[in-house]
Amino acid sequence: MSLSSSTFRALRHHNYRLWAGADIVSVTGTWMQVLGVNWLILTLTGSATSVGLSLVMQALPTLLLGMWGGALADRLPSRPVVIAAQLAQAGLAAVLAVIALSEVTSVLPIYGVALAGGVVNALGGPALGRFGAEVVPPDDLPNAMALGSILNSAGRILGMSLAGALLPFTGNGGLFVVNAASFFVVIAAVLGMRRREFHRLATADRQPGAVLDGLRYVLRTPWLLVVLALWFVSGSVGRNYQVTMAAMSAGPLESGAGGYGLLSTVFAVGTVLGGFLAATRTRLTLRLLLIMAFLTGLVQALSGLMPSLWSFAALMVPIAAGAVALDTTVSARAQLDSPDAMRGRVIAALSIVSAAAGAVGGPLLGWLSDTLGPRVALEVGGVACLSAALLAAVGLARLSGRTVRQAIRLRPQLENA
Fold this sequence. Notes:
Elements: H1 3-6, H2 14-45, H3 48-75, H4 78-101, H5 108-134, H6 141-191, H7 210-219, H8 222-237, H9 241-250, H10 256-279, H11 286-303, H12 309-336, H13 343-371, H14 374-400, H15 404-409, H16 412-415
Helix pairs in contact: 2-3, 2-6, 3-5, 3-7, 3-13, 4-5, 4-6, 5-13, 6-10, 6-12, 8-12, 8-13, 8-14, 9-10, 10-12, 11-12, 11-14, 12-13, 13-14
């Protein structure tokens, strides 16, 4: 099979090409704003804790309102909701630009914008996920997700690089203006898509209790619970590498800010490779999920033993690649193996688990690094991920009525690929 028909097969579709182009522009703008917000808060407060609080403000609405956003996504047409969410985010970016350019000295308005942005993400994010699934046929959705991971990684690298280069000339306000403009690129792409080429998902009827129905579906779907539990462990103690890489650079590796920058760059390269790994596969199965979770946990545990910056950096590549492949597989299986009318609420459940994992894992790994040392933190996290992968294999084996070894191959009902 040729590269164009396999690795990049989702790009054969006109609507996805527009979506992919808009995606990298939007992600680039988002990361420019992330750097600008963090720097602005640090400038005003001089406190890294204050930066962390802004992240909590962004994540909290997803934990509280995510399932409501999923219920809305399952009931309403995705296209107008996506456009409305993009307009809202553009408005919030413009507000940030005004705050920065007016030289406000209080951090409270920035927290307010962060909280409002979190609400928009919570209510509009599931619709965005549903819409992304409608621009390609179901068979090409895993490939589209994998390519999306590559674009997200590329956009992150490009956004941070551009922000660092432009910040001395434009100030924080300029970065926010660029991000505001990026949302109109997404809107233009959505409006330019061909209606006849959409692959519409079935919608849910308007009825009371839609949020509870979504929760009941998740809680009564054992294989999905197992996958979400594995993803939570992997995302909390096995994914917050911004914490552990910084701790290793400042501590055992004695490489300082330069070493941390190098590790961040290497990690970003690994995420791109992980996206390509997922994109080359015609099927993203639960077998791949278990293998990636196990191997990533193993390499993480080993990374705590690495004696030098370069040996540690070498292991960041497979860890980052495995993490992206794992994330893409979880998203693909959770969506494709769930009913269309429940898709938005399943996407919301994924967002809630991801937000909770970040909120728990970052402070936990920081505490372990401070009390036991970053090497031990990495080893503990790696062993936890290994254990979670084995327990998930056991759980899926019991659900399928087979042995653990057979579960690694997984019955077609569980793969449904």
